[in-house]
Amino acid sequence: MHSTFLVNSWAHLWGARPYETRDQSRNSTLVAVLALGEGWHNNHHHRAGAANNGFHRWWELDATFAVLVVLGALGLLRDLKVWRASEQRMEVWFPS
């Protein structure tokens, strides 16, 4: 639980801001490692509807998203919204 709480505290105080958002959200590698990818908080605030948070750089580990992809592949999840930063568009994986 402490790792989860870091997302809304640490990731609003320290880290990089690759995207201009209305808040002070930041990307934190430390929080991303501890909270399984949720530390890419500025990315999340930039595209809040996307299931993937680690889309700004190729090395942004997003373990939570990986679990969602596995669930979708198993047929347990549908309509996963994925932000394609390189193409600047949202797409849906595992449509219903």
List keywords for this structure.
alpha+beta; about 30% helix; two-stranded antiparallel ribbon; globular; single chain
Order of strands, widest sheet: 1-2
Specify Rg, calculated over alpha carbons.
Answer: 13 Å
Average predicted local confidence, pLDDT: 95
> What shape does the CA trace take?
globular
Task: Give a short account of the largest sheet.
Answer: 2 strands, antiparallel
Instruction: Compute the number of helices.
Output: 4
Counting DSSP E segments of at least 2 residues, the number of strands comes to 2
Architecture overview:
With 96 residues, this protein is α+β, with helices and mostly antiparallel strands. The chain has helices spanning 2-9, 29-34, 41-46, 63-73, and strands at residues 80-84, 89-93. Strands 1-2 form a two-stranded antiparallel sheet. The longest helix is centred in the last third of the chain and has 11 residues, at 63-73. The mean pLDDT is 95.
